[in-house]
């Protein structure tokens, strides 16, 4: 259970990072 939680946290962090990078790219393009 703890392992699953850590994996979900890592996945959420990766998704947040990707979203942040996409937002930065959009802001830069504008």
From TrEMBL:
Residues 1-14 have a biased composition (Basic and acidic residues). Residues 1-30 are annotated as: Disordered. It comes from the Eukaryota. Residues 15-30 have a biased composition (Low complexity). This is Uncharacterized protein.
């Amino acid at each position: 259970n703890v392992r699953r939680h850590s994996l979900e946290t890592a996945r959420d962090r990766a998704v947040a990072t990707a979203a942040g990078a996409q937002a930065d790219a959009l802001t830069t393009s504008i």
